[in-house]
Amino acid sequence: MADTNEIPPGGAPPSGGGGAALPENGWRKEYWKKNLRLMVVLLVVWFVVSFGAGILFVDQLNEIVIGGFPLGFWFAQQGSIYTFILLILIYALRMDKLDDQYGVSERNDDGSRS
């Protein structure tokens, strides 16, 4: 297991953006803060689609019919699942970029994923 005070592989993590170097564990706090912000945004989108479109706004959405099915019914049955899968994909891609930015990605020396 890696030492918790060690700089991640691939070099030093980025500075705080203002040009000043972060404290020893400052990059970890910034990394976790960005990770939490991404999770909160994606969970809010998931909540709005699943609870809002599938329950709260179902009557208004049912007035729109696509392919013979009311839109509110579609969101309750399929739309929230598709949205959840899309949010998982977005999270994985954004976290790969964040991991690369902070030098903690799980890549081999040749650049491929392990």
**Structural Rg:** 20 Å
**Number of helical elements:** 3
The succession of helices and strands, N to C, reads: HHEEH
Mean pLDDT: 81
Envelope shape: elongated
> Largest sheet, if any?
2 strands, antiparallel
- Helix/strand-derived category reads mainly alpha
Work out the helicity level. 55-70%
Side-by-side strand order of the widest sheet:
1-2
Number of strands: 2
* Unreliable residue stretches: 1-5
What quaternary form is this? single chain
Distance between the termini: 17 Å
Question: How large is the share of residues in beta strands?
Answer: under 5%
Describe the structure.
The chain has 114 residues and is mainly alpha-helical. Helix content is 59%, strand content 4%. It is built from three helices and two strands; from the N terminus they run H-H-E-E-H. The protein has helices at residues 26-56, 58-61, 71-102, and strands spanning 65-66, 69-70. Strands 1-2 form a two-stranded antiparallel ribbon. Strand 1 and strand 2 form a beta hairpin. The longest helix is centred in the last third of the chain and has 32 residues, at 71-102. The protein starts with 25 loop residues before the first helix and ends in a 12-residue tail after the last helix. Mean pLDDT is 81; it is low at 1-5.
Keywords:
two-stranded antiparallel ribbon; mainly alpha; 114 residues; disordered N terminus; 3 helices
In short:
The protein is mainly α and 114 residues long. 59% of the residues lie in helices and 4% in strands.
